[in-house]
């Protein structure tokens, strides 16, 4: 039986992972340091272990820790891992920021959920509204082997499919590519755009348009625009008037150098800032 230690078991991600790990055959130990986190672990029906009692014996150690703390946590716990073990990280920030201690005798693996697509549909209403994923809604994941052997990747991917279940597709990419996806694409770019989209709707409401009308009109148009651009409506296309409006918007909203967000130097700066 594979032994797994979950660090940060009482955090937001840790709680989600705990509930899915409880459905598996992994032998899991849970680590948490905050009083609130320990309470959440106990509410999930588990007890908190001591690091020196479980990490040296673990086959896999999952670091479910916020990016700003990951460096200190790794420096504390990675030296305790046994030779041949796999350190599992939930996003690429720490590995790309150079926060992982040098250990040539262990493997490092990263996996991150894509979260359920805006085009996802679930017959069960409860699962349909599982926006984050990991409860009942289908989602894909991305996985990267940072260092180690092919068997280490297979171990890490199997664990990732369990903690993020139900998983439809597991995409194997490099850790550098994962950094382009997050933070660059999904947060620095997309989350910034979505934040401004919300501000735009609020502005329209402030100008007197009824809030419900503005929300319904905007979200419906976003839905059809995404469907047109991302191949959900084969043969569909914007109207001539919409194309003209798009060009006006691009000139008013975007800087000429906006694509620099995805260049290596910018991605590195973004990762440094969040870690």
Write up what this structure looks like.
The two termini are 34 Å apart. The protein has two domains: 3-173, Rossmann fold, CATH 3.40.50.720; 180-274. It contains eleven helices and seven strands. The chain is globular. Strands 2-1-3-4-5-6-7 form a seven-stranded mixed sheet, with helices on both faces. The protein is α/β, with parallel strands linked by helices and 275 residues long.
Largest sheet: 7 strands, mixed
Q: Indicate the CATH class of the largest domain.
A: Alpha Beta
Give the number of DSSP strands: 7
Q: Total helix count?
A: 11
Count of separate structural domains: 2
The average pLDDT is: 96
Short summary:
The protein is of the alpha/beta class. It has eleven helices and seven strands.
Characteristic terms for this protein:
single chain, 275 residues, alpha/beta, Rossmann fold, 2 domains, 7 strands, 48% helix
Topology:
Elements: E1 3-7, H1 12-21, E2 27-31, H2 35-43, H3 51-54, E3 60-63, H4 67-77, E4 86-89, H5 93-96, E5 107-113, H6 125-128, E6 139-147, H7 150-163, E7 167-172, H8 175-206, H9 211-229, H10 240-253, H11 264-274
Parallel strand pairs: 1-2, 1-3, 3-4, 4-5, 6-7
Antiparallel strand pairs: 5-6
């Amino acid at each position: 039986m594979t032994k797994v230690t979950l660090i940060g078991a009482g955090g937001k991600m840790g709680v989600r992972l705990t509930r899915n790990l409880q459905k598996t055959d992994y032998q899991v130990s849970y680590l948490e340091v905050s009083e609130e986190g320990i309470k959440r672990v106990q509410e999930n029906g588990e007890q908190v272990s001591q690091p020196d009692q479980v990490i040296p014996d673990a086959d896999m150690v999952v670091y479910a820790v916020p990016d700003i703390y990951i460096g200190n946590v790794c420096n504390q716990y990675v030296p305790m891992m046994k030779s041949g073990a796999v350190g599992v990280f939930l996003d690429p920030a720490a590995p790309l920021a150079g926060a992982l201690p040098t250990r040539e005798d262990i493997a490092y693996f990263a996996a991150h959920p894509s979260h359920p697509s805006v085009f996802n549909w679930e017959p069960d209403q409860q699962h349909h509204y599982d926006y984050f994923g990991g409860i009942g809604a289908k989602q894909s994941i991305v996985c990267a082997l940072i260092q180690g052997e092919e068997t280490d990747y297979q171990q890490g991917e199997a664990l990732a499919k369990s903690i993020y279940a139900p998983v439809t597709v597991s995409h194997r990419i490099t850790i550098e590519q994962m950094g382009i996806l997050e933070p660059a694409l999904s947060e620095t770019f997309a989350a910034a755009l979505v934040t401004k989209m919300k501000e735009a709707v609020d502005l329209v409401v402030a100008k007197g348009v009824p809030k419900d009308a503005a929300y319904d009109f905007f979200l419906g148009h976003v839905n059809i625009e995404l469907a047109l651009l991302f191949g959900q409506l084969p043969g569909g296309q914007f109207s001539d008037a919409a194309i003209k409006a798009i060009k006006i918007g691009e000139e008013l909203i975007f800087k000429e150098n906006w694509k620099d967000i995805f260049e290596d130097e910018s991605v590195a700066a973004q990762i440094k800032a969040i870690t």
